[in-house]
Amino acid sequence: MAFRSGFVALIGAPNTGKSTLLNHYLGRKISIISKKPQTTRFRVLGIKHLPEAQIIFIDTPGIHEGKTHLNRLLFETAKYALKEADLILWIVDITDPDAPENGLILKILIKETFRTLLVLNKIDLLPREQLLPLIEKFSSLYDFSAIVPLSALKGENTRPLLDEIIKALPEGPAFYPEHMLSDVPREQAFAEIVREKILWFTHQEIPHAVAVMVEEIKSYPDRSFMDISATILVERSSQKAIVIGKAGQMIKKIGANARKELEAALSLQVNLRLWVKVEKNWRGNPKILRKLGLVTE
Ligand code: GDP
Ligand code: MG
């Protein structure tokens, strides 16, 4: 059988299980392995090396119809990623099939007729008999290459999806050497771990208003620890109060959990320092967006 390789763009509303699916295929450590800065205009999230194929998963920034600088920028980057990809993987949470993003995604798909696999995720949460009508509904909306119901969390039916992905990729040699698992810069990967903890523990009260900027990474030759300093940007002082928490309890919890994950991933002791800063208009500030890795030029 000929070797296949290509780029697969992940798209879907927030919380549909994109990261869970990726982690299932790639393992948790992946995204902080490489120190190499990003080489392409889209962000490679991870690379799955198989005997018969190389699957390169790329990020698609959330699709919103907002009017801010950041929204427009993300929308353009998203469309670019979709155009460059060999295949689109659209992840839908079947407990929330009518998420507002889905209409927008469908509109883009119909306009450009991309080759798309539809993933109906979280089948563990829905009785079987409610699945069939959903499959029928989605298959009437667009000519998907395939529709695969699965549970990313439980790892149910995930191998059939992998097979569908491979089938949809063009024949060709691998793009990346086998040791390379991702090209997300370290700063972004570390920041994402911290940001994830903020969203967990604040119960997503402030998801879009928060950004994490890793300011400094210091490692020492022959020592098994690393210093990491990061600033948490929020838009209002009320959000700062949430992130810090009563008597600093919240920021402590965020820091401790992020540190634990960083230490496990890096096999190093980590000294993590976090600051919280109110930056009213960070989403409209090109300098900050560049530092966050959202703009590459
Ligand atoms: P993302 O925002 O699309 O990257 O979504 P995440 O991967 O962060 O998942 C959002 C939430 O959905 C997390 O709490 C996951 O544990 C949960 N989740 C993801 N996949 C499944 C699934 O198959 N079943 C269930 N029950 N929960 C899931
Ligand atoms: Mg995610």
Description:
The N and C termini lie far apart (40 Å). This protein has two domains: 4-168, P-loop containing nucleotide triphosphate hydrolases (Rossmann fold), CATH 3.40.50.300; 186-291, K homology (KH) domain (GMP Synthetase, Chain A, domain 3), CATH 3.30.300.20. The longest helix has 18 residues, at 249-266. The protein is 36% helix and 23% strand. Helix 6 (186-201) crosses helix 8. By secondary structure, the chain is of the alpha/beta class. The site of magnesium ion has 2 residues, from helix 1.
Summarize the structure.
By secondary structure, the protein is of the alpha/beta class. 36% of the residues lie in helices and 23% in strands. The strands form 2 sheets. It has a 6-stranded mixed sheet, sandwiched between helices. A 3-stranded mixed sheet has the order 7-8-9.
Produce the secondary structure layout.
Layout: E1 4-11, H1 18-26, E2 44-49, E3 53-58, H2 69-84, E4 87-93, H3 100-112, E5 116-121, H4 131-141, E6 146-150, H5 158-168, H6 186-201, E7 211-219, E8 225-234, H7 237-244, H8 249-266, E9 269-278, H9 286-291
Parallel strand pairs: 1-3, 1-4, 4-5, 5-6, 8-9
Antiparallel strand pairs: 2-3, 7-8
Helix pairs in contact: 6-8
Shape: globular
Q: Give the SSE order as H and E letters.
A: EHEEHEHEHEHHEEHHEH
- Secondary structure tally: strands: 9
The CATH superfamily of the largest domain is: P-loop containing nucleotide triphosphate hydrolases
Beta-strand fraction estimate = 15-25%
- Percent of residues in helices: 25-40%
- Taking pLDDT < 50 over at least 5 consecutive residues as the criterion, the unreliable ranges are 29-41
- N- and C-termini, Cα separation: 40 Å
What is CATH's topology name of the largest domain?
Rossmann fold
Strand sequence of the main sheet, in spatial order?
2-3-1-4-5-6
CATH class of the largest domain: Alpha Beta
What's the CATH architecture name of the largest domain?
A: 3-Layer(aba) Sandwich
What is Rg?
20 Å
Mean residue pLDDT? 84
Q: From the helix content, strand content and strand pairing, which structural class follows? A: alpha/beta
Total discrete domains: 2
Number of helices: 9
Q: How would a crystallographer describe the biggest sheet? A: 6 strands, mixed
Write out the distinct hetero groups bound to the structure: guanosine-5'-diphosphate, magnesium ion
